[in-house]
Protein 1
Amino acid sequence: MRVRPGRVALHLALASYCLTSVGAFVWCVMVSLKTNPEFFSTSPWSPPVSPQFDNYAQAWNTAQISRFFANSLYTTVTSVVLGLLISVMAAYVLARVDFPGRGLLRMVFLSGLMMPGFLVIVPLYFLLRDLGLLGTLNGLVLVYVASHVPFSVFILHSFFASLPKELEEAAYVDGASPSRTFFRIILPQAMPAVTGVALLNTLTSWNEFFFALVFLTDEAAQTIPVGILGLQVNAQYAANWVQLFAGLVITMLPVLVLFAVAQDRIARGLSTGALKG
Amino acid sequence: MERQKRRLVVPFLLPAFAAYAFFMLYPAFSTFYVALTDWNGVSAPDFVGLGNLTELAADETFRSTIGNTVTFVVIGAMILFPGALFFAYVTQKLRFGKVYRFFILAPVVLSVTTAALLWKFLLNPNFGVVGVELLGQPSTAMLMVVLATVWHGIGIWMLLFAAAFERVPVELREAATLDGASAFQVFRHVVWPLIWDVTRTLLILWMIQGLQTFAFIIAMTGGGPLRSTEVIGTYLYGVAFTEGRFGYAATIAVVLFAAILTLTLSVNRLTKRESEQY
C-alpha cells in the first residue's frame, strides 16, 4: 500500500473541517464550566481551572432553561401528534376514496407547500390576537399544526396511494367498517411513513423560530430558540456568560442524543424534507 | 365498498382542512388585501390601493435590503454548492468517510439561534477565538453570517448530493477510468451531467430559502452594523412589529412572494437541459 500524497491532503482537509464542528461544541462546554472572571481573563482554549457544574444548575433553575424546555416539549409533542392525526386521515381519504372535487382539494392542500411563513405572518398575528391566543403556547401549537398539514399530507398521500387495494378489500369482505379498516389495518401498515414524517415535523417544530419569535410575546411562554436569544440579552447586562453557555449546552444535548440514536433515519428524513420545495 | 368508504370523506378531511384553511389559507389571502391598506393594527385599515407599492419602489432602505439579500444568496451559493459537492464526492468510498459525514452533518441538529450565537461568540474580538472584529464591520459582517448559515446547513446539502451520486451507474465511471480519464475528468464529463437535474432543484431550493433568510441575521447582527446585513425578512419584521406599519409589511411580503415565484419559474426554465439518459 503506497501512501498517496493526494489522499493524505484529502484526509487533512476533511479532518480539519470536522474539527470546526467538534471545536465549536468543545469550546461551548469548556466555557460553560468556567467562572465569569475566568472566562474574561483566560484564553478561549484554556480548560476550566475547576469545573463549575453549578453553572448548569443555575441555568436550569434561575435562567429559566427548564421553563423553555417544558414549553418547547409541550409545543412540539402536541403539534406533532395533532398534526399527524389529522393529516393521516386527510391523506388517506385523498389517496384512497374517489369523491367529487378530490383533485381540486389535493391541489389546495399542495399549494400550502409554497406558502412561506412571512406571507401569513401579519394576518395570523391579528387572528391569534382576536382569538385571545397571542402569547400563548396553544396559539403557537395551532399555527404549527396547520403549517405541518401540507407537507404531511403530501408525503403520506403518496404512501397510501402505493398500498395494494387487496388490504381494504379483504377487510371489507370480512365485514369491517371503513373507519375500522383504516385504524386497524391501514394505519399500522403506514407506520414507517408516519414515523418519518413525525421525526421531520419534530425537528421543524423544535427549532422553529420565526412564528415563535413573533407570537410568543410573553417571556413565561417562550420556546428554546426564542428563549436563549433573550437569555443572551440578559447575559449582556449581567455579564453572566458562563451561565448562558451552560444553557446552550443543555439545549443542545437532547437533540444531539436523538441525532446520534436516529442518525440514518433523520438523514433520510431530512433529504425527503429538504426536497419538498 | 366504495360507497361505504365515501362516508369517511367529511369526518376524515374536515379537521385537517379546517386547521389549514383557518390558519394558513385565510391569512395568506388576507395578506394580499392588507397590502392594499394603511394599517397600524389598532384603528380600521385605511384603503390606499397600490400606494404602498409606489412607496416601496422609492424606498431606499428596501432597495439596499434587496441588495443584501441577493448578496447573501449568491455568496452563500458560491460557498455552499462547491463545498457540499466536494464533501459528498470525496467521502463516497473514502476510509472514515461515514465519520466525516457525521461531523459535517452534526451542526444541523442545533437550533438556528444556538448555531448563530455560537458563531457570534467565536467571532467576538474580546473573548472569542478570532482577535479581529469581523461581525462589527459592514464589509465583513455579511460574509460571517453566510459562513455561519452554510456551516449549519451544509450537511443536508451534502447528503442530497450524495444521494444523487449513488444513482450514477458504477459501470459508466469504471469505463471512463479504464479509458484513461483522470478522477476529475470522470467527475466533469460523466458524473456532473448526470446529476445536473438534482443540482438545478437544489439551486432553486437554496434561492427560495436564502431569500427568506432571517434567524441567523436576527441572532448574529440584528441587521447591523449600519444595516449592512439587513435583509428582506428582517426588514419586513421590523416594519411590522417594531414600526407597526402592517399594510406596508404585507406589501413587502407580497413582493417577496412574487419575486420567489418568478425567480423559481425562470431559473427552472433557464436551466432545463435535455435530461441525460442513464
Protein 2
Amino acid sequence: MQTKRLTPYLLILPATAFLAVLFLVPLVQTIWLAFSQGNAPSMANFQRMVSDLNFNTALRNTFLLTLFVVPVQIALSLAMGSLAMHIGKGRETILWIWTIPLGISDLAAGLVWLSILQNSGYLNSFLYGLGLIERQQAWLTYQTPIALFFGIAMAEIWRSTAIVMIVIVAGMNQVPKDFNEAAQVFGASRWTRFTKITLPLIRPALQSALILRTVLAFEVFAVVYTLGGRNFPVLMGEAYTWQNTNQNYGVAAAYAVLIMVISLVATFVYLKAIKVDPERLP
Amino acid sequence: MKITKTTSRLLGGAALAGLMLAGAAASAETIFLSTQLRPLEEAQAMRGDILKGVPDVNYVVEEPPQFPIRMTAESQTGRHTISLVGALHGELAPLAERDIFMPLNDLAAELAAAGMPQSVLDLGKLGTDDQEYIPWMQATYVMAAKKEALEYLPEGADINALTYEQLIAWGQAMKDATGAERIGFPAGPNGLMARFFEGYFYPSYTGGVVRSFRSADAVAGWEEFKELWSVVTPNSTNYAFMQEPLLADEVWVAWDHVARLKEALNVFPEDFVTFPAPAGPHGRGYMPVIAGLAIPQGAPDVDGATAIIRHLTQTDTQLLTAELVAFFPTMEVDLPEGGEDGVSLLASAVSATQSAPDALISLLPIGLGDKGGEFNKVYMDTFQRIVLNGEDIAATLAAEGDVLNALMQDTGAPCWAPDASSEGACPVE
C-alpha cells in the first residue's frame, strides 16, 4: 500500500531533478546576477539597462513586432485551418507543405529572407527585371525603417505561423461535426457557424497558441539580427549584445529577467482574458 | 557466412579499441590554446601546414570571451592542461597582470638575436621588466578599392597619402556618377568599426584616443565624419566583413582588418588596389594588432611549448603564416613583393602605412580587463548618436565623455599611445 502511494512521486522524481538542476538553478543564478553588483544586492544593472541608448527603442520595437505579428498569425492560421477542414483529398499533403518552415531554424529563416531582401537579392533582381527600379534599392538599412520593419515581420510570419496553425487545426479537429451540421440545417451562414460554433469551441487551442506565440515573439532574435543587425534593436538582441559584445553579464541578465517578466504577464493576461471552461481543459 | 561477418566485426572493434588505447598512451601532447585563427580554414591551415613538423601538438581554439575564464580557472584550481596560449596583446595583458604567465626572458634574448625588432619585443613586456609573451604575428587595418573606383579619385590625390577630405570628395564623385554611395565601413554587429574610431579617426583628428575624446578637435572631426557618412552606403550598419560587399560590387572603397579583406583580394587580386587609411589634421592614425604566445605558470609541457614558439618564429614559418592566413611576421622578414595574390596586395598596404611619414601609431586598449567591450561601446554609441541619430555633437561628446571617464577610473587603466602617458587612470580632458 505504502509503495503504491509513493510510485507516482518516484516516477516524476527524475524529471523534477532534471528541471531543478538545468532550469531552476540557472534561473536563480540569472536573477541573482541581475539584482546584484559585486556580490551585494543592487539595482545598478537595471539602472544601466533603462538608461541605455537603445533600451526604449528595443522595448518599443519588440512590442510593435509582437502586436503586429501575433494577430496576423492567428488570423492566417484560422483561415488556413478552416480551409484545411474543407479539403478532403490531399489535406495531409497541404498541411505538410504549410509546416515546412517549422523545420528550419530561426537563423536559416533569417538568411532565406536576407537573400531575398538584400541589395543584390531576389526582390531587387525581380523588380529590376520588371523595369520598376533603375538600380539596387536598399530595404534593410537604418534609413528605411518601415521597409525593415515589414521585412522582419514578414520573415517572422513566414517562419512561425505553422506552429500556431498546428495547434489551431488540432483544436478544430475536436469540434464535433454534428454541431455544424445542426446549424446548417437551421440555415446558419458559414460566418455565423465560424463565429458562433468553431471559435468558442477552439478556445483552449486558441489560448495555447496565443501564449506560445506571444512568449516566442518577445524572444525574437535571430531573424531580426540577420536582417536588421543593429538597425532594429529588440530586447533579446540587446541581451545578446550586452553579454557577448559588451561583456557585461549583469546587464544581460537584467534584460533576461525583463523578458521573463513580460512573458509571465502576457501569459497571465491570456489566462484571464480567454475564459476556458474547466471541463474542456485537457 | 554469418560467423565470418561477426568475426570480422569483432576484429574491427578490437582494432579500434587498440587504436584508442594507443591514442591514450600517446596523449602526452602539448595543448596549444588560441583565440586567433579560429575560423575552420585558418585552424586547418594551422594544424595541417603551419604546425607541420612539430611533434605531438594539439591546436585548440577558444572564443575570446571564454579565454580569460578558462585561463583563470586553470590557474586558480592548479589543474593545468594548457602548455601554450596564443592570443591578442589586449587579451594577454589582463592575464599577465594577474601573474598567470611565466617570464620568457631567455627566449626573448634569443629571438632578439635572431632578428625580432626590440620595439616589437618590448610590446610583450607590457611595461614590466619581464617578457610576458612573445610577439607571434601582426595584422592591421587597411583600405581596399576596386580599380573602377580609381577614375573618380580627386585630381592630384595620391592614393597612398590620402586625406579624409579627399576621401569625401572621392565618395561624392562616385555617388554623383553611379547614383549610389560606394564607400563602406564594417559598422554591423560583428564589424570592427569601434577600432576605426579608436585607432584611425580619433588619432587622426585629435592626436589622442581617450584624453582628447571631447576636445574641440574631436567636435570638428565628427562634423567632417558626418560629411563622410553622407557618401557611405547606408548598408554599412549591417556589414561584418567588408570582403563580401566588395565581392558583391555593392561597395567600391572599404576600410577593414586585413584578414577580413583577404578573401576578396585572393579571389580577384587584379580587380583591387590596397592603400593606407586617410590622414587627418594630426596625422595618419593606424592600429597594429599584435598576437602573442605565452606559457602559463604550471604548464605541463614547458619544453614542448618552447619548441612550438621557436618553430612559429622561424622565418619560413612566419612567411608561411603570412601566405596562408594573412597575419604578417613579427620577425624582420622581407615579404615577397610584387606578387599578384591577395597577401602581397595587403602586404604592400601594410608597409605603405608603416612607412608613411605622417603615420601615428595607436595601440589596442590596454588594462581595461573585461571592460574592453564597454570601452568600444562608448565609441559606437557616440557614432550612433551623432551620425545616425543626428544628436548635437558637443552635448553627445560631453555625455559619452562622462561614461568614458567613469570607465577609465573604474578600471584604473593608464593612457596608451598616442595619448600622453598618465599617472594612474587615463583622464578624459
